[in-house]
Amino acid sequence: MDEKPDLRAGDRDRDRIAEMLRIALSEGRISVEEMTERLDRVYRARTFPELDAVVDDLPRTHLVTPSGGPDLLRLNSRGFRAIRKTGRWTVPPRLNLDCTWRTAVIDFRQAYCPHPEIAMHVSCHSPFGDIIIRVPVGWQVLSDEMTSGGWIRLLRVHNRPPEPLSPDGVVLRLSGHISGDIWVRYHHDPS
Q: Where is the DUF1707 domain (predicted)?
């Protein structure tokens, strides 16, 4: 994304960038002295833009999750409890959403997303289990791998981007099975 929110970075975020620097050193992209200087900047950084500035000249293919770090977020509802993932959070490359009787809301508008593509597997076998996905304008939400069934219903993914997609926007790829509806909402401003 062109602009990242001015969110505070945590230790896990700094470790992710430090690992990226270690890979760049092992590939000969930076020298030992340069790595030392950049690591100092990484551990002084307080926000995501400060961290990104340390690695802006390195290939984004080296953006990794530190070993042992989560690359999958599981969101499950049991019984009548609703799922809500909103506010400021860091998006992993994979999400599993398993909902039953209530509406699930997944809001990416204030989330920090370091990945160019996110895979989200959905499992919702109740016609009462709708899913609302809120994304920034410019993201692309693909649902070709979704199936639906039950009660004489066709695939019910409501997804109409308001304007052309951004070439460097995040791709959210949906897969799985639903019996309810998925509503994709695009927003200009997270507030």
A: 7-59
Domain boundary among 62, 84, 101: 62
Exposed e or buried b per residue across 115-144, where buried means at least 16 C-beta atoms within 10 angstroms of its C-beta: beebbbbbebeebebbbbbbbbbbbbbebe
Mean pLDDT of 75-97: 83
CA distance 51 to 55: 7
Do 43 and 87 lie in one domain? The reply is no
- For residue 165, give both structure tokens: 């997609």
Provide the pairing of β-strand 117-124 with 171-178. parallel
Rounded to an integer, what distance in angstroms lies between the CA atom of residue 159 and that of residue 86? 20
- Residue 1 belongs to some domain of the structure: no
Q: How many domains does the chain have?
A: 2
Phi-psi region of 134 (alpha: psi -120 to 50; beta: other; left: phi over 0): beta
pLDDT tens digits along 8-44: 888 777 877 887 887 788 778 898 899 889 988 998 9
Q: Quickly list H helices, the chain.
A: 11-26, 32-44, 48-55
Same domain, 82 and 139: yes
